[in-house]
């Protein structure tokens, strides 16, 4: 699918980080963007500075099914259809399972995993009716290889991965396709609320890959109908090594990230 003038694109988690960078890139190409997140004022401010006319879908929690269904319907009506839906909204709580509250576990499950289900299920009938369109699901490298303190986060990202892998095949012959996205560490606000307690294997932060480079890779992936997009490329290598031998994945992580990334021998 070509991304350009006339593309009607719905992006969840558009107020910050990867979603915002993607919304900026899409708008620069002439797309009409549905900007969805909880924070209305940030989305209004973004819509004001983007070129073109966009649809602000503020006050929407992707973990609330009715709220997502309403927002997707509003966007389809205002834009006259949907060509691209990007399930990107997500959050983290990096904590040991034995210390993590079940509330945090449920929140990640609701927002990262069920948020993807609600977003894709709400938009899919419109895409199928049109016989054209593209779905993007932003998972994580953690969906290929989970890390200590990110057990539940990784589980939600693996759930997205399996969902997307199967759905891409289910969509064969419909005119609709799907691309999975596996970011590594990208410089966004994802961990701002937990900066003081990040695990020592974590090497992200302001010097990680910029969100706009991730957004460019996503657009290329959509245009090339890629099955998946990995950024930075080391994420693909880690996934491949872990898939062949988890023990070799452990060794690779200890070399790259130190013993805390895979302490058990
Ligand atoms: N940054 C990384 O290193 C990295 C690595 C791998 C994967 N990812 C994935 O990339 C995606 C985007 O993350 P990011 O790094 O760009 O994080 P971010 O800067 O924190 O942005 C997250 C976005 O999601 C929205 N959001 C969070 N909870 C929401 C909810 N319940 N309902 C609606 N919107 C919600 C936020 O907006 P509001 O708070 O206004 O709702 C914000 O726009 C996530 O799925 C994340 O798991 C990121």
TrEMBL record:
SUPFAM superfamilies: NAD(P)-binding Rossmann-fold domains (SSF51735)
InterPro entries xref list: NAD(P)-bd_dom_sf (IPR036291), SDR_fam (IPR002347)
Keywords: Oxidoreductase
Statement: the UniProt record of this protein carries the keyword Oxidoreductase: yes
Gene Ontology molecular-function annotations: oxidoreductase activity
Pfam families noted in UniProt: adh_short
A cellular-component GO term for this protein: membrane
Keyword presence, Oxidoreductase: yes
Family that this chain belongs to: Belongs to the short-chain dehydrogenases/reductases (SDR) family.
PANTHER family found in the cross-reference section: DEHYDROGENASE/REDUCTASE SDR FAMILY MEMBER 7B, DEHYDROGENASE_REDUCTASE SDR FAMILY MEMBER 7B
Protein name: Short-chain dehydrogenase/reductase SDR
């Amino acid at each position: 699918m070509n991304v350009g003038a006339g593309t009607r694109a719905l992006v969840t988690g558009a107020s910050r980080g990867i979603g915002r960078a993607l919304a900026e890139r899409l708008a620069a190409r002439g797309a009409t963007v549905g900007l969805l997140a909880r924070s209305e004022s940030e989305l209004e401010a973004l819509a004001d500075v983007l070129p073109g006319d966009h649809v602000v879908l503020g006050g929407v929690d992707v973990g609330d099914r009715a709220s997502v269904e309403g927002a997707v319907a509003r966007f389809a009506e205002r834009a006259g259809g949907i060509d691209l839906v990007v399930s990107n909204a997500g959050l983290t709580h990096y904590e040991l399972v034995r210390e993590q509250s079940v509330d945090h576990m449920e929140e990640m499950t609701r927002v990262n995993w069920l948020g993807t289900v609600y977003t894709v299920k709400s938009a899919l009938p419109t895409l199928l009716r049109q016989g054209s369109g593209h779905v993007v699901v932003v998972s994580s490298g953690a969906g290929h290889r989970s890390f200590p303190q990110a057990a539940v986060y990784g589980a939600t990202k693996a759930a997205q991965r399996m969902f997307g892998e199967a759905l891409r095949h289910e969509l064969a012959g419909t005119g609709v396709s799907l691309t999975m996205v596996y970011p590594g560490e990208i410089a966004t606000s994802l961990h701002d609320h937990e900066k003081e307690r990040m695990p020592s294997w974590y090497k992200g932060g302001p010097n990680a890959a910029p969100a706009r480079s991730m957004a460019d890779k996503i657009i290329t992936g959509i245009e090339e109908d890629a099955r998946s997009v990995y950024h930075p490329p080391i994420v693909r290598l880690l996934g491949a090594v872990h898939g062949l031998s988890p023990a070799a994945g452990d060794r690779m992580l200890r070399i790259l990230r130190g013993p805390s990334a895979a302490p058990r021998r």
